[in-house]
Amino acid sequence: MKLQTSTLFYTFLFILSAGLCQVHAQDLPAKFGKVDDEALKMRVYEQDTSAAAVVLSDYGYSYFTYSKGFKVVFERHTRIKILKKSGYDAANISVPYYQRNSKKETVYSIKGYTYNQEDGKVTKDKLESKAIFDEQTNENWFAKKFTMPNVKEGSVIEYSYTITSDFLYNLREWEFQSTIPVAYSEYNARIPEYFYYKQEQQGYLRFDESTNTKSRDRFTITWSSEVTPGMGGGRTPGGSSQVEATSDVYRWVIRNAPALRPEKYITTLRDYQAKIDFELQTVKYPNELPQVMTGNWEDVTKDLLIADRFGAQLNRKGFFKAEIAAITAKHTEPEQQMIAIHNLVKRSVKWNNKYGIYTTGTLRKAFDNKTGSAAEVNLMLTAMLQDAGLEAGPVLVSTREHGRVPQGSPMLNKFNYVIAHVKLGDKEYLLDATDPLLPAGMLPVRCLNGQGRLIKKDDQRWVTLKPTGKLTKYFNGELTINPNGGLTGKVTESSTGYDALSLRRTILEDGQDKYGEKISKEIGNYKVEKPEFQNVEDLNQALNINYNLSASGNGQPVDVIYLNPMLGKGETENPFKLEERLYPVDIAVPIDYTYVAKFVIPDGYEVEESPKGAIISLPEDGGKFMYIVQREGNVLQIMSKINMLKPVYFAPEYPYLKEFYSQIVAKHAEQIVLKKVSSN
């Protein structure tokens, strides 16, 4: 949002008052340039003895200045203890900053030291300016990067920097947690009464301290002279005036924040990180009406639909008219037209792995070059669907790695992807043409992240980004156990849904021979021969793999045969290792894994021991594990079935989920024991 200048030609000169200086000079958690012996002598962080590094203190402060317009100044001072070699990465620092058109952020006053204790003396290595370099990450984002010098096990590093920003809309956010433990984190913000920011707190940690006090600041307001032309005009003299304004002074502290460590089945750790963010809601300068800075979705939708790199592209359809005419002539049913257009885009344009909600060029250029970004591919898909007369519109998405989208005020920077929405009667479909292996109506896992925003003039709303299928695997084996402990038989593995999507990609990328070798490695002590693949490229059919399976045994009959009936396909490790988990378990799609194996017992042997059947259920119909053992004559059948019925399990369900998998792992480890029958 653009801040409007005063109609009275006010120029605000922000003068730091005594009150501001006092806040800025308050006792800090660490004084730059001085490290105490305790920090240097630390060998283990008591709160987390496994930590390779720990943030001893992290202090941030945001305040406002005025120089040809208001600016936000952000200061940071960070001190880190390196405990192990595996913690050296904490000495690699990146400071992101943003530039757009004439507005910019400037990073300056970068200082840093590395402290070591050698022979009882403290050495101090300075970060040299020549070790600091700039890197451009995309069109608008840059980073100052540096590595602290002479880092060793036991080092203490500290650095500080200042950022001045022209962008007032988003006050600098503050992250209280990191991938290493944080012993002390403090953020201060001093905000003049002219600006009202909505604060958004995130994470599972509570503030140890949170205060909001008021302070009076002095401002000098100057205005330039103004010439009014025409009859009755003249010059209005310039001048200046001293005013006092109230500022909100905020302080937040969190102590002993645990490290954010990756666990299986999560979107991004940033979704659960303890942090505070700000969004500018209103601006009210003296003698002016308030300016509402936060838009609404109706206005944002209207702007997007006429934006040259978004909605305007949907109106430029001439270059594919012939292709759409051919499809609509061949297919009369809307659903068949949708599928055909989806296939056309997948064949015609390859995704270049670039994200974003805006096109970088025209859709015509992407079509001619046969490659484009996610926005270009799926806006083209939307345009073609509309040209066929189907009710279609684009949907803004934030991918799983990009993080959740707050549904309050519209913030387009929270989105990084576009898909297509189609409504056919009372049915709705979400389409993505970036992956040639995706059937129509199935989203890639990266897009299964909460809700997306449908951008249509007469139908703007949130749509749920849910999976339309499961991750379905089916194993069927018919095997004969030999007296020497060997085994021979045939196996069919069948996959549909998201499992088939993943397998098809692997098989097509690696080749069928290489994938056959991969099956052998997964199964372990068994030999896989003559693998046959069915429906690898037919996306509407189950993907089947048939092969012969064998194990050589001992070469001669044995008295006792031991066999794990899961044949290397069982769960061998619990993916949930934490004692407690604060954030949800997000598996993205429901799981349906069925394993059936029939074993023919050799003549002269009896079953001395076999696994017992079991049925284990998660609370609230969250899932079920069934293990069934049946015997008919000399045939022993084992069936294992794992059903995870929900895509997301919340933190209170974690203990049940962990125990659920513990019992599956234990059951899958059980063996069949066959004993040779005595001839007497």
UniProtKB/TrEMBL annotation:
Annotated ranges, domain DUF3857: 72-226
Protein name: Uncharacterized protein DUF3857
Residues in the signal sequence: 1-25
Signal recorded as keyword: yes
Superkingdom of origin: Bacteria
Record keywords, A-Z: Signal
Pfam family, one: DUF3857
